[in-house]
Design goal:
alpha/beta, Rossmann fold, 7-stranded mixed β-sheet, 3-stranded antiparallel β-sheet, globular
């Protein structure tokens, strides 16, 4: 069954901005992608509530246009309100069946979309189809194994104790069963080459989230809460313990191994004790991009 994001606006709106720094994206737009000097027609695959429209479009030249599409109507309704009066358009459609003619856009972009699709190649082919000759296709996705490997929590020494093999096995199991690849970020340049894009390059997002005590401002408290919601949270009672263990077992993790890891995370008690922890959490979105060549 496809993932549903209908009720995830609060999570998405809190986490998306923390994966990227605006100054780095301005550098990419100006110096790397070179899409800021003239008006561009942009399409956003799997746009959710249109975060990329809000984030990217102010960096582009006047006269640029933004069209986003997603399968979630509740998120699209949120986005239409946020983007009202900005000349943007949000429509409902599947990422593997873009409702646009060939060669419509100058830039096709997708943020953390391919890593949620059982057949990401179909979405990538659609991105290429709707982009004009000489246009740019950009995809930003994570590699969860790398994120787990780089997380540092000083008080619990995650660099020494994170069970990397468990997460590798879990992600591999999900991919075998469903085709969904949580490590697709570092694989995307190869997929782009296989799809026929040229001049392929990749960059890594530069954002690293820090949470250091004391959490004495609303912004620090908000950042810490987002970090917990985005991977540091753990169950706080036996019912939650059983739920998370069952979730891991369903993803090919042996019950004994799953139970030991959940107990370890519960002992770390990030939500209760984490305000006193020194946490360094990487964003690590791989931004892969290539040029569309359709001529002879």
């Amino acid at each position: 069954m496809a993932e549903s994001w209908d009720d995830q606006y609060e999570v998405l709106s809190a986490t998306r901005p923390m994966y990227h720094n605006e100054d780095y994206w301005r550098f990419l737009v100006r110096e790397v992608w070179r899409i800021g000097e003239a008006p561009r027609a942009v399409v956003d695959f799997g746009c959710g509530y249109g975060w990329l429209g809000l984030f990217l479009m102010p960096m582009l030249a006047a006269g640029s246009s933004y069209v986003g599409f997603d399968r979630s109507e509740p998120l699209l309704r949120r986005g239409r309100a946020l983007l009202a009066g900005q000349g943007a358009r949000l429509v409902r459609a599947e990422a593997t069946a873009a409702p646009f003619a060939d060669d419509t856009f100058d830039v096709a972009i997708a943020h953390t979309l391919l890593m949620h699709l059982p057949d990401p190649g179909r979405a990538l082919a659609e991105m290429i189809r709707v982009t004009r000759d000489g246009g740019l296709v950009i995809a930003g996705d994570a590699s969860h194994n790398a994120i787990n490997a780089l997380l540092h929590v000083h008080e619990t020494d995650e660099q020494e104790h994170m069970p990397l093999a468990l997460f590798q096995a879990m992600n591999a199991g999900v991919r075998r069963r469903t085709g969904v690849d949580r490590n697709i970020g570092m694989k995307t340049p190869v997929l782009m080459r296989q799809a026929g894009l040229t001049d392929i390059q990749a960059r890594i997002s530069d954002a690293v989230r820090l949470s250091f005590p004391p959490l004495d401002t609303p912004e620090k408290q908000r950042r810490f809460a987002v970090m917990c919601d985005d991977g540091l949270g753990a169950p706080e009672d036996e019912a939650g313990f059983e739920t998370v263990v069952a979730w891991l077992v369903a993803r090919d993790v042996p019950r004994e191994t799953a139970a030991a890891e959940v107990r370890r995370e519960m002992a770390n008690a990030y939500r209760r004790r984490g305000a006193g922890y020194h946490i360094v959490q990487p964003g690590l979105i791989t931004l892969s991009f290539g040029t569309v060549r359709k001529g002879p």
